[in-house]
Amino acid sequence: MKKLPRISESEWLVMRVLWSNGALTANEVVKELTGQTKWKPKTVKTLITRLMQKGAVRFKKEGRKYRYYAAVSEVECVGAQRRSFVRRVYGGTMKPMLTAFLEDAELSAEDISELKRILEQKGKE
């Protein structure tokens, strides 16, 4: 498994924009984040630069513009964060984490049914 870059909470917002929209200029990323954050354009450009240094974002030059795109997939990054969380908070053990989440969750009958289906499928694997 390849090593994925550590992405900060602020950087996640930029990555979500790139995952959702594909290659964008820095100004287009700024525009997408308007309303979600009160960041100045310079802040967004700094985050893009950091993500490039980490290898999470790359660019392609189009004339005088640079289009930035995600170099790592959302699925991989979410999975890495999930595994890291389970390791750090629950000592790598899933049962206490699932129990805590289920006890706190408000689940519909449909949600419970779907969870049962997933667990039954897991039991067959």
Write a structural description:
Strand 1 (57-62) and strand 2 (65-70) form a beta hairpin. The two termini are 22 Å apart. 63% of the residues lie in helices and 10% in strands. The chain has a two-stranded antiparallel ribbon. The mean pLDDT is 93. The protein is mainly α and 125 residues long. It contains six helices and two strands, in the order αααββααα. Helix 2 packs across helix 3. It has helices at residues 9-21, 26-33, 41-54, 74-90, 94-104, 109-124; strands spanning 57-62, 65-70. It folds into two domains: 9-70, Winged helix-like DNA-binding domain superfamily/Winged helix DNA-binding domain (Arc Repressor Mutant, subunit A, Orthogonal Bundle); 74-124, Penicillinase repressor fold.
